[in-house]
Design goal:
By secondary structure, the chain is of the alpha+beta class. It has a single domain, classed as Mog1/PsbP, alpha/beta/alpha sandwich (Protein Transport Mog1p, Chain A, 3-Layer(aba) Sandwich), CATH 3.40.1000.10. The protein has helices at residues 2-18, 72-85, 124-138, 198-210; strands at 32-34, 45-49, 55-60, 64-65, 93-102, 105-116, 143-152, 155-164, 173-182, 185-194, 213-214. It has an eight-stranded mixed β-sheet with strand order 1-7-8-9-10-6-5-4, sandwiched between helices. The longest helix is centred in the N-terminal third of the chain and has 17 residues, at 2-18.
Length: 216
Amino acid sequence: MKFARLFSLVAAVVVLLSLTAGCSNAQASTATTTTTQAFQVPANFTTYKDENSLFSISYPNQWEPATDLVGLNTQMKDAVSAIKSGLPIDKTSILFMSGLKTTTGYYPGLAVVVEPAPTLVLNNGLAVQAEVNGIKQVDPNLQEISRTKITVNGKDATILEYKAHFSATPPLMHNIALICLDGRTIWSVTCSAQDTDFDQFSSDYNNVVRSLQLTK
C-alpha cells in the first residue's frame, strides 16, 4: 500500500540518520551547486508553524497533517521541549508529517525530522556526507543525483536528491531531502515517491524542502 511505503520510508530515514555516527570525511562524488535565488512560498501552499515557534514548513494546501500516526505527538513534544530549552536532543524524532490523504494513508508527503549530530559532524557538509554514507549502508547502489547548497535563516543547508532501495525488493524510491545543521541538531525535511511517480511531484517537493524556516 502507498501508506505503508510512505511511512516505511520515514522509518528508513530515521534509521539512516542514526547511522551517521560512524561517518568519515569522504568527499562527495556528485558535483555540488550553490543557489542564492530567493524563495517564495507558492500561493497554493499552506504553512504549518509549531506552537513553540521553533520551525515552519509549507506544503500544498490539499495535503493534511498526519495527526493519526501513533506516537508522533509524544515524540514531537519531547524533542521540541529539549530544543526550546537549549538542551541537546538525545534521539532521532519526527516533528511533523503531512501528505495527500488517500483511502490507504498519505501519499505524496513530507517528514520533518531532527537528530543529535554525531561528534564527528562539525559542519553541514559533513552532515550531508554522513547521510549519504548511512544510505549506502542500506543500499550500496545509491544513485546520488545532485547536491544544492542553500541557506536556511542564515545557516548552511543542502538539498540532496537521490534514488535508493530501502528494502530487498522494489520499488526504487526517488527522494529529495533538505539537510541543515543547527548547533548540535541535524534538521531534515524529506519528500519521497516511487521513482515512476516522481516527476508529477518534483515541483511541489522542491518547494516543500526549500520552505523550511527555523524560527527559534
